[in-house]
Design brief:
162 residues, 2 domains, 8 strands, elongated
Length: 162
């Protein structure tokens, strides 16, 4: 699993001079941060790990649940840094979690647990591959709201990482 994010730092550019003040220009410089960690598929909590050793307070945590035929994996990129000044230097921007199987096998597998003759159920099967904290999908408890054209809502994290 690879975690990546951007960090912006305010820096002085000696090669650019502001016309009005005659001083060097201050700019926001982007730095790519992150790294790769291995997440073994074992039932239980994911070991809290910082993918970038320079940023131990930015880490991945989560939960793995083994089901009869598959695993359900929940991962979070957590920014637990103490905010300093300038505060924007302590935020993370454009965060990414990239998950791949060791042998590049698919990590998301569509489950067809419904009858292909029922339009509502076909949409249900399609919705099962879309989930996550920032994904909008129909409410999991109301099948009627899962039909195309019905309103959707933010599902979020129902049982949390623990």
């Amino acid at each position: 699993m690879t975690a990546a994010w951007g960090q912006y730092k305010r820096e002085v550019r000696e090669d650019r001079i502001e016309e009005r003040s005659g001083k060097p220009t201050r700019v926001w410089q982007r730095y790519t941060r992150g790294g790769t960690i291995e997440v073994p598929l074992k039932d239980g909590a994911v070991k809290t790990t910082a993918p970038d050793p320079e940023f131990p307070d930015i880490y991945v945590q989560g939960q793995i649940r083994h089901r009869d035929t598959h695993f359900v994996v929940t991962l979070f990129l957590v920014n637990a840094q103490e905010e300093g000044r300038p505060k924007d230097e302590y935020h993370i921007f454009q965060p990414q979690l990239i998950v791949q199987g060791i042998d590049n096998s698919p990590i998301f597998v569509k489950r067809l647990t419904v009858s292909p003759s029922d339009d509502d159920c076909l949409f249900l099967a399609d919705a099962e591959i879309r989930s996550g904290r920032s994904v909008t999908q129909p409410d999991a408890h109301d099948v009627r709201d899962r039909r195309p054209g019905r309103s959707a809502q933010h599902v979020g994290d129902r049982d949390g990482p623990g």
